[in-house]
Design goal:
Chain B: Its main location: membrane. The complex is a heterodimer of chains A (173) and B (412). Chain A has 173 residues and is of the alpha/beta class. Chain A contains 3 helices and 7 strands; from the N terminus they run H-E-E-H-E-E-E-E-H-E. Helix content of chain A is 20%, strand content 27%.
Chain lengths: 173, 412
């Protein structure tokens, strides 16, 4: 593997300064955080830079952290992959819990289109500039965002089923 | 007429009103799906058509969405395999193994060589069944039923092997954390040998029926082609990407479960059309057979079938009744009280139709904090409207089945 993580880090810090931070190696994936409003520029840079060449977008997904401070309640996780050097990276962009807005990267990667729609569908994260941001797996009439932590898996009024000792419940984490 | 099919505010309704052909004919709308035998799954496409030519398509998915990611957040780790079964149900063992390997990566469990080889065999069998289904159904969609009948009984043979391994057939729930739930029986190896003897004959025959068949070539060559650049931009992985000429295979790029021990080639196509996708899958079946053979030949002696991790692996039932430690571990595992670090893991395996990824976030509790499945179908299916633009309706069906879109994986 000739593309070293230090090189990725140096290049990013050189270009984006304080907008990229928290670099660390998590198991086999090099991971870092970015400020949300720079995401498009950073992804574009990672894709087009002649040495970095992260030309493949593997995955986008959201995670909800309701217990965090308000400006860090949602995170959009991007997995990118450089097939030439066989290197994976993970980018995390934390966004505000009340107005979860982030710029779309579907203009850079067409494959991001549905991944972002899925993230919107389940978390209500608004991808600014997305060509067709509407529900994809859930029905159009739905008003809630089911993957948010406050959304219950089952009707809370059920008494026929006691799952207290299994799985995650409010009282048992 | 069109108001009956579509709400008047739909953009196709407007296009139909505004556009008129010179000969006075009108554009029309066709609903392909949601349930139609030729779509092999539940997805709808609203097609805007000029005669038999498709001008535009609007896909709707989500008809069998079952909220697996939400359910996974509320289930102990060992109860998540049955969910993975039901994604790409044509090759469930790959999904199962992928999930166990994600867990093993999280917990740093080293799986013994023999168990890894057994897993490779199970996964390659799954890949073979996946490709049997895709390619023979592609034959059926082009009007060739015979090939389907020739090879489909071998899917049954593979299911009999699964049955010997884990007791289930379609949704296998195979394996445990660190290996398998029990050692493979001699019968399983016997059935495997029979399969390895008989199947290549039938598969050769199947290939002969199709590969130089005039009708099949006419129906598939240059139908639904996609360039390598487009395929990568749309997130293609697996056979569909390799048909476009890119030799990306997770088994080679990030070998898991000892794939580095085996020699196999990654077949690639050239034009990325339906015919190339068919041929790549055919070739992959031969490679899978070769990998299974190599795994059987290199199989280490002994009967180790799981890692020695009593904290995570259920003890034998007779020990639970007689041995205190086993009883404690049994209780803790069943109640989901296994020690899990706080971590974020991404693990990918080469599924039947592409890179199947598991992104797992844990917070040290008994369930995943977040589990995201990177489902290859979901990501490459968005290229479908682009691929069928300008094609005939009958081509749209053939392209759909050559992409091997599995509704269960699409919707998760």
């Amino acid at each position: 593997m000739s593309l070293e993580t230090t090189e990725i880090q140096d290049k990013l810090v050189e270009t984006f300064g304080e907008n990229v931070f928290h670099f660390n190696q998590e198991k086999d994936i090099f991971s870092f955080e970015v400020t949300a409003d720079k995401i498009t520029a950073i992804v574009l840079f990672l894709k087009n830079d002649p040495t970095l060449r992260f030309h493949f977008l593997t995955d986008i997904c959201g995670v909800h952290y309701p217990d965090n401070a308000i400006e860090r309640q949602f995170v959009v996780v991007y997995h990118m992959h450089n097939w030439y050097e066989n290197k994976r990276i993970k980018i995390k962009a934390f966004i505000n819990g009340e107005t979860p807005d982030i710029k779309t990267i579907s203009t850079i990667f067409p494959s991001a289109n549905w991944m972002e729609r899925e993230t919107w569908d389940f978390y209500g994260i608004n991808f600014i500039g997305h060509p067709q941001l509407k529900r994809i797996l859930n029905m159009d009439e739905m008003i809630s965002f089911p993957m948010r932590k406050e959304f219950p898996l089952e009707d809370g009024g059920r008494t026929d089923k006691d799952d207290r000792f299994f799985g995650r419940t409010q009282s048992n984490r | 007429m069109s108001e009956l099919l579509l709400p008047p505010e739909h953009r196709y309704a407007k296009i139909i009103q505004e556009l008129h052909n010179e000969d006075g004919s009108e554009l029309s709308i066709l609903n392909l799906g949601p349930t139609h035998p030729a779509t092999h799954g539940i997805f709808q496409n609203i097609l805007l058509m000029d005669g038999e030519k498709i001008l535009e398509a609007e896909p709707t998915i989500g008809y069998i969405h079952r909220a697996f990611e939400k359910i996974a957040e509320n289930r102990p780790f060992y109860q998540i395999t049955p969910l993975t079964d039901r994604m790409n149900y044509c090759s469930s063992p790959i999904n199962n193994m992928g999930w166990w390997m994600t867990m093993e990566k999280l917990l740093d469990i080293e799986v013994p060589k023999r168990a890894q080889y057994l897993r490779v065999i199970a996964m390659e069998l799954a890949r073979i069944t996946d490709h049997i289904i895709c390619n023979s159904i592609l034959g059926v969609d082009t009007g060739a039923y015979t090939g389907f009948l020739y090879v489909f009984q071998f899917r049954e043979k593979v299911y009999e092997i699964y049955e010997e391994i884990c007791g289930a057939r379609l949704t296998t729930n195979m394996g445990r954390l660190g290996g398998f739930e029990r050692d493979w029986s001699p019968k399983a190896f016997e059935l495997l040998e029979v399969f390895l003897k008989d199947f290549p004959v039938a598969w050769k025959e199947f290939e002969n029926l199709f590969e130089r068949n005039r009708i099949f070539i006419d129906r598939t060559v240059n139908v639904g082609p996609i360039t390598a650049e487009m395929a990568m931009a749309y997130g293609f992985t697996g056979p569909n990407l390799r048909a476009a000429g890119v030799d990306y295979d997770v088994r080679v790029a990030h070998p898991y479960s000892s794939y580095e021990d085996f020699e196999f080639i990654v077949p690639v196509g050239k034009s990325g059309d339906t015919y190339d996708r068919f041929c790549v899958r055919n070739a992959e079946v031969w490679e899978s057979l070769s990998i299974i053979r190599q795994a059987l030949d290199k199989m280490p002696e002994g009967n180790v079938f799981h890692a020695d991790v009593p904290e995570y692996y259920l003890p034998p039932k007779e020990d639970v009744y007689t041995d205190m430690e086993s009883l404690i571990y049994h209780f803790k595992i069943v109640m989901g009280e296994i020690p899990v670090p706080v971590a974020e893991i991404y693990h990918a395996v080469e599924g039947g139709n592409g890179e199947l990824g598991f992104y797992l976030v844990t917070d040290g509790s008994r369930t995943p904090y977040r589990l995201h499945f990177r489902r290859p179908c979901f990501i490459y299916y968005q290229a479908y409207p682009e691929m069928i633009k300008g094609a005939m309706l009958s081509d749209a069906i053939v392209i759909l089945s050559s992409l091997n879109v599995i509704a269960g994986e699409l919707d998760a």
